[in-house]
């Protein structure tokens, strides 16, 4: 039994030098396992005389306990070191910018421009009105003073829908002007609304898509005149393009539902790829407008001798192209996430006249 001390020294030395949990387990098996050295000594107790056993028993038990404790202590130290190493390896540096990849959704430029327009007109006291995309012929044309069979109906490249039995034929609205009619039929003047929405015409090239977006405006009061129309729209263009001055002209035009009618042109400068609105040597048409035709007022039960007002309509997709430098309209509706990421807006940055529009 002289090797108790030797075994203890060797066992403690190999426990101390075990560099990982696997090696430590090998040491445990070699000393305390069924066929281990310490277990082998314990087995010898059975063959000893009672006196020998009385002397050796406590010694061997103490050896077993010390080796066992040394293994447990070393195991804890190795486990703690392994955890440290893992934590160091898997550390996340939260101060780093996020890895490139899909980011949160972006607001489509058309939606952004809708919101900008609503913010500007909202500031002037306009409410937002809506109407259905699928209209009847009366709201889209007849009530707006398009005579039956008049060629103006054809210039709209209308999508006509098949009539259901016993029902009037429907069209996909070709402009937002039917919302004027719906508003005047249900509200008493004074009226001051804008109507943003989708409109449809059978057309397809770099600047025309079969579905596009317009914003309509309507003001009906007792004394509203052409001067108000001009002032309101010039103020709008200045606010929208974020410029101090805009040179504008109102060029006579024809719309069945306004008289007189005018298209509004603004001066612009082309600077390389981009266009600057406000001044320059070329004119660009940006919207249609006019004084609401007395027939339209009458069709809606409003007395043209008592009330008058103005209306305007503009293409939102084109305004967005001009303001944000997008050259082609078609990708607007191709749902390409790369395009949306490039031209889109942060959805939480609500435009406001005082806080900034874009
Ligand atoms: N509805 C016309 C269009 O789509 C625009 C317009 C609206 C013109 C209101 C005058 C007044 O072309």
From TrEMBL:
Pfam families: Phe_tRNA-synt_N (PF02912), tRNA-synt_2d (PF01409). Residues 110-331 form the Aminoacyl-transfer RNA synthetases class-II family profile domain. It comes from the Bacteria. Its cofactor is Mg(2+). One of its GO terms (molecular function) is magnesium ion binding. It is found in: Cytoplasm. Keywords: Aminoacyl-tRNA synthetase, ATP-binding, Cytoplasm, Ligase, Magnesium, Metal-binding, Nucleotide-binding, Protein biosynthesis. Signal peptide: none annotated. Its EC number is 6.1.1.20. GO terms for biological process: phenylalanyl-tRNA aminoacylation. CDD domains: PheRS_alpha_core. The keyword RNA-binding does not apply. Mg(2+) binds at residue 259. PROSITE patterns: AA_TRNA_LIGASE_II. It is an enzyme of class 6 (ligase). It catalyses: tRNA(Phe) + L-phenylalanine + ATP = L-phenylalanyl-tRNA(Phe) + AMP + diphosphate + H(+). Binds 2 magnesium ions per tetramer. One of its GO terms (cellular component) is cytoplasm. Coiled coil: none annotated. Belongs to the class-II aminoacyl-tRNA synthetase family. Phe-tRNA synthetase alpha subunit type 1 subfamily. Tetramer of two alpha and two beta subunits. HAMAP family: Phe_tRNA_synth_alpha1 (MF_00281). This is Phenylalanine--tRNA ligase alpha subunit. It comes from Hyphomonas pacifica.
